[in-house]
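Much of our argument rests on the idea that a fold can be written as discrete symbols. In the encoding step, the backbone of a single protein was reduced to a row of integers, each denoting a local shape. We regard such an encoding as a compact summary of how the chain folds. The record that follows shows the chain in one-letter code together with its fold in token form:
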Amino acid sequence: MRAAAVVPAAGRGERLGPGAPKALREVGGTPMLVHAVRALAQARSVDLVVVAAPPSELGDVRSLLASFDVPAQVEVVAGGDTRQQSVFRALAALPDDVDVVLVHDAARPLAPSELADSVVTAVRGGADAVVPVLPVVDTVKRVDPDTDVVLETVDRGVLRAVQTPQGFRRTVLARAHAHAGTLDATDDAGLVEALGLQVRVVPGHPEAFKVTRPLDLVLAEAVVSRRRAAGVR
């Protein structure tokens, strides 16, 4: 079962503030997209990485990846107006012999290669869909959005924060996107859930956090500095 990773990277990331598209923001002097693609390409179980980039920037993204010596098994295709469209287009570009597909956010640039391998192993073990998760450590309350009044305190013991890369049998992910319609899921696992199929979980990783706000960039810089001090690229 060959595995490929899809990286939707056509968004702007407005919450991160003005500047380059989120995927091209630098962490430790290296664009987040490069960090993410390099880690996926170095995973033992991943044979190919496909990046869905802004249609007007395909050449620039290809040149960027080449300049940072990202392995050759990386292709760049035109993404869509939404994350969902970008994943769908990248999925259509995969070779026919790919059976397992990872979907990974470029905004999680520091997810280690081992996490991708763990997810692929779970899919190859028989799961239709797999997501890495971490326990929720904060107290969580359900709030009435109209009155800002707390309705209940949710049992965090059964809650998990979901990360990427998420893994799928290719046929399942393709069917989920084909039946998505107007469903606005926040991740691809949500599309699979809408089909009534089970999604399994595996342990996530603390460094696979999402860079959304300027403060997240500070944390990412600290992680990269610690890795480099330890001799990790």
Summary: Helices lie at 32-42, 58-67, 83-92, 113-124, 170-178, 188-194, 214-229. The mean pLDDT is 93.
